[in-house]
Design a protein that fits this description.
Blueprint lengths: L2 H12 L5 H8 L3 H13 L16 E9 L4 H10 L4 E6 L5 E8 L2 H15 L3 E8 L18 H15 L1
Antiparallel strand pairs: 1-3, 1-4, 2-3
Length: about 170
């Protein structure tokens, strides 16, 4: 992978529907050459697929971290990966026997139920279980959300406006 491939990947992160013509124009190559580059990245498994990021008002995202007993990792992983549609992503981390998951639902109660079911089914096999609900997405290059640094004065100005409107 070279610098041109990296440029293509960065463009596709922001807009996976970008045309080969637009890619080629942006990096100074033909549409056909851009298409061949993208196809090569797909064939090599660097581009594994294309997703649509859908915003659903009211949807809740939860990060779930599980540390399993040393000999129970595969059992817990099998359970959480096949039992629910709420779990969107599962990651194996560098920490021994650690599973990191992302779950989403439009119902907090459904996510609480998911956690209870994991605890009920895998309770003796789990050493630690931590859940954190997402309050705000600050940056998501795949979902088109860019980080914009917020100055202290801007956030204070908003608080000042809120205080003034209450009086």
């Amino acid at each position: 992978m070279d610098k041109t491939d990296e440029k293509i990947l960065n463009m596709l992160k922001g807009n996976a529907r970008m045309s080969y013509q637009d890619i080629g124009d942006a990096i100074g190559m033909s549409r056909v050459a851009a298409k061949k580059r993208v196809q090569k990245l797909e064939k090599e498994g660097i581009i594994r697929g294309y997703n649509t990021c859908i915003y659903k008002p009211g949807e809740v995202t939860v990060f779930i971290d599980i540390v399993t007993a040393p000999d129970k990792y595969d059992d817990v992983l099998e359970y959480v990966s096949t039992r629910t549609a709420y779990i969107r992503q599962i990651f194996k981390t560098l920490k021994d026997n650690h599973i990191h998951m992302v779950a989403t639902s439009d119902s907090v109660d459904e996510l609480k139920y998911l956690i209870k079911m994991i605890q009920k089914k895998c309770g003796d096999d789990i050493q630690e279980l931590h859940c954190n609900a997402v309050k705000e997405v600050i940056k998501d290059v795949y979902g088109g959300i860019r980080y914009e640094q917020r100055s202290e004065s801007n956030s204070n100005a908003g608080n000042e406006r809120d205080r003034r409107s209450k009086t």
